[in-house]
Hints:
The protein is an alpha/beta fold. It has four domains: about 5-225, no CATH class; about 260-355, CATH 2.60.120.1250; about 360-480, CATH 3.40.390.80; about 490-645, CATH 1.10.390.30. The chain contains 23 helices and 24 strands. The strands form six sheets. The protein has a six-stranded mixed beta sheet, with helices on both faces. The protein has a six-stranded mixed beta sheet with strand order 19-20-21-22-24-23. A five-stranded antiparallel beta sheet has the order 14-13-16-11-18, with no helix packed on it. Helix 17 packs antiparallel against helix 18 (about 540-550).
Amino acid sequence: MNDDEFDQVPQILFQDVPSVKYIRFVEALIPVTNDTRAVVCGADSTKVAIVAARVGNGRCLIFGNKRYSDFFLANDPQDQRFIENCRRWLSQEKEAQFESIDDIESMDSVKEKGTILVWNGHHFKSDTFMNDLSAFLKEGGALICGAGAWSWLYFNSGKSLSDFITGRFCDSIGVKVTGNLAGCDDPIPFKPELVKYKNVYNVVQALASEPNNAEYLAIVGSAIKELGNTLPDLSIETLQNMVLNAGSDVIPTKTSPIKNKSCRQRSIGYYVAPGTTIQIDVSEPVGATGWSARIGCHSDDLGNCDQLRRWPCISTCKLLSVTTVEMSSAFGGLLFLESPAVELNSISVSIKNVVLTPAYDIMDPNRDKHWDDLRVRAQGIWADIAGQYIVFNLPSQSVRDLNSAQLDRALRFWDTVVLTHHDLRGTTPVRRERIVCDEQPVTGYMHAGYPIVTHLDITDPKSEYFLLNSDILEKKGFWGVFHEIGHNMQRDWWTFSFAVEVTVNIFSLHAMDVICKIQPWIHSWLEDKIDKAKESIKKGKPFDEWKATAGVSLFIYAQLAREFGWNSYKAVFRQYEETKPNLTSDQEKIDHWITTFSHQVGFNLVPLFKFWGFPISQSTVDGLHDLPIRQISDEFIQTAPDRYQL
C-alpha cells in the first residue's frame, strides 16, 4: 500500500458513515510516523481518537478506548456500515472474521487466514506473544486494538505507562498512547478537515514551508510533551527553534504576568482548543479600562530553566482594547478575563469558537445541577474548581468522578485554610487564591505567588496527596500547600532576609493546629530536625544552623506558640498591620520582633532569642530589662541550660 492509497483510509472507513459510536472516556492518540494516519479526531486535530497503521504487509486500527474491541466482536447493527468498512480495509478486500485474542496465551492458536484479530489492550500479553503478533502483522495480518492508557493506570495502581504492554506495542508501530482525553462528541463525527495533516511526520515536513501554521504548531506542541526527543526525522533543538520563531500571535514568545496582585482573574467556564482562533466581542465595558483576555492558566515562563518538560511559554494574554478581538494559542487552555485593579468595573462579552469546560463555583446556588451536567458534557481538558477564597486549575479527568457534595467538602476545607491564614495575620481576603497544577513549575516542587503552582502528581484522584482528598486533608492537612499559601501571607516587616522559608511555616503550624488538631509541639515535620538542632546547640553555634536549616529555625516559633498560644501571634501581627513599621535592616527587624512580642506577652524574651544565638542590640536588651523572664524548660533548653539567660 503506497502513501497515496494510505492517505485515503479515513474516507474509506467513513464511506457513507457520518459518525461512529462514542464510548465514554475516549483517549487521545498521536500518529507519529509516516506509517500511521489519523482517522478521526475529537475536540481538535491534536486529539486523535482512531489511528490506522501499516505494519509491513499488515494493517492495524488503534482506538482510544479498550471497549471498542467489544464493539467489533458484538457486530453492533447500529454501526454495521462502519464495522464493514473496517473489515474490508483491514482484510484488504478479503473475507475475514473478527477473533478475540484477549484470553489466548499463544499466537499458535490463531487462525492463519481469514481472521482479523481483536485485542482489548488491558489484557496482558507476554513478550513472546507480542513478538509473534508483530510477525503476524508484518506478514499481512490484521488487528484492531483498544488502547486506553488512563483507564489502565486507574486499575493498575503503582504502575506507569512504561509498564503498559499495549503502549509499548503502539510505540513500535508508530502510535503514541497519551492517557489524555480526546474530548469527543457523542457520537463522534467524521470531520475530514481535522485529519488532513495525517501524522506528526507529515506536520514536521510541512512546518518547514509554513512555520506560522497555527494548526500544525498546535499538533507539534501537543506532541512534544509526549514524544520528547523521539519526533520523526527532526532533532528536538531544530523543532524548538522552528516553533519559537513562529509569530507571537500563534506561539506566546513571552509571558504576560499579572503584575498587580489585586487584579482579578476570572475563568468563565470555557476552554480554547489548540490552534483555534476565538473571537471576543466586547459589548458593555463599565468603569475602568484595561480588561484583557488570557488563554492558558500555566503562566510560568521556563525560558531560563536548564531542562524543559513543556514549552517555556504556553499562556498568552491580549488587551480587550477594541470591540472585537481575535486571539489563539498553539497550546490552548482555559479562557480567563482579567480585570483592572480597581473597584466598580465590569465587562460584558460574547465569545465564539470556545469549548465548554468543567467549571464549579461554590458560590453558585445551583452548582449541584450545573455540575451534574458539566462533568459529563463539557469537553475542555482543564477544569476550574472554585471555592469562595481559592480556585484550583487541574486536569478535567481529575474531577469528573467527584460529585457536588465531594467538591463542596474539599473546597470548604481549603476556604478554611485561607481564612485561617488571614485570621492569624489579621487581614481579610481581597481575592481568591489560585492554584495551578503544571507539568513543570518554574522553580521547586511548588512555588507561591499568583498563581501558586504545583506539580501534576497531586491531581491524581487515587493518590493520598490528591488536592481534593477530603478524608486525608481533614486528618493530615497538606503541609506543602499550606506552606505556599503562607508565602502569600508573609510580610517583610517580620521576615528577616534569611528567614523567608521560616516565618512562612508559622502559618503552616497554625493551620495544622486549628484545622487538623495537630499541635505545633512537636509537629511531625519538625521531628526529624530535633537531633540537628540539639547538635548545633551543643556546639554553641545554633544560629548558624538556624539560618541554614528551615526546620531548625522553626523551633523558636513553635516554642512561642506553645508557651503563649496563637492569640499572642494574632495580637503581634495585628500590631504590625496597624503600625506598618519602617524597618530597613535585618537587625532592626529582629529587635522589633523581640520587643513587640515581649511587650505583648508581658515577658522578657531576650533569653530565649539569645539561646538560639540571635544578634540582639543592646538598646533592645535594655528596653526589656524591667519585664520578668519567662522560665522555659524543654528538651532544647535542657541541652544547654546555661545559654538561657540575659
